[in-house]
Amino acid sequence: MARQVKRAFKYRFYPTNEQAAELSRTFGCVRLVYNKALEERTRAWCGEQRRVSYVQSSAALIQWKKTEEPAFLTEVSSVPLQQALRHLQTAFGNFFAQRAKYPRFKSRKKSRASAEYTRSAFTWRDGQLILAKMAGALDIRWSRPLPEGSEPTTVTVSRDAAGRWFVSLLCDDRIAPPPATKNAVGIDAGITSLVALSTGEKVTNPRHERRDRARLARAQRELSRKAKGSANREKACRKVARVHARIADRRRDFLHKLSTRLVREIQTVVIEDLTVRNLLKNGGLARAISDASWTQLRSMLEYKCAWYGRELVVIDRWFPSSKLCGACGTVAAKMPLNVREWTCDCGAVHDRDINAARNIKAAGLAVPACGDGVRPQGSTPGGQSSVKQEPPRATAGIPRF
What is the tally of structural domains in the chain? Predict the structure, then answer.
């Protein structure tokens, strides 16, 4: 049976000068409202230990529009401004639930320029999208069609650091499940090989950042020579951003193809719960780990498994997958990173990555066989289970932009 999911379709578009000016004003107003509401909430919390609700922030927004200083807020659509307050409410909800840090102020230069429009703030007619406060439709490059008979419920317009404009349309979609299979695979993330599979296959790491490193270095050298605040420096900044965008686009495309192939062919996908933030503290490998983008690959596997009805099992980070002999179960005392092939005392010769992937698969399959308390080898420092099944996220059906 086909699954009903919320799916975002992202396209590039080319605004006219009038549309670009209107959207730029909207981005600035959204940032101003978010920061002003955050400032008011922070003052109320630090001074009075009082929480400010979304309703109170929305009422304050009406009063801000009536004052002289931010009266220009009335020049843009009110819906993106209300959505900014809702996003701030969500950020505070995550903070009080200890799921995230305290919300931060949005920066004009560093924060993502975006505005979200709900159904009342745009018109969708005959495949054309017209936003509020705009006379004409957006010139969108339809790289792929929307689901047949589906209309967008939410529209998010954004502009990246390279000056490219994007529109993301959130639609209801029905995804037909792939053919049923009983296959299971363990995945070991690496640097030389991006992933090693328990089947013996290794996927070579494309190293997108390294391939464009000379181009990026040249653009950064040119940027360093420009005077701060000059127009030439702004041009040089966009040139650096275009190189970064090229690297990110190619990496994202590769990871999408890899994750889609794995989810369509495999019923149970087993991965490690890596703490990439801690791994990035290794100065010698931080650049290569960032280029591999293991976190992005895991995110794709999460929501695609939810889409296609597959099972994603996550192995605890302390599970000794690399040091464990898959033949006799012996755990080696040490396993330096430069050891890519090793021989166990039992005589078994292991490829480090393939052996780790097979151990990960065996540990993951212990979940349905023995329950969610199984520890195939050893225990974690906190006494936690070495194997857990990844629960579906509330936003599992919506890919991140």
Answer: 1
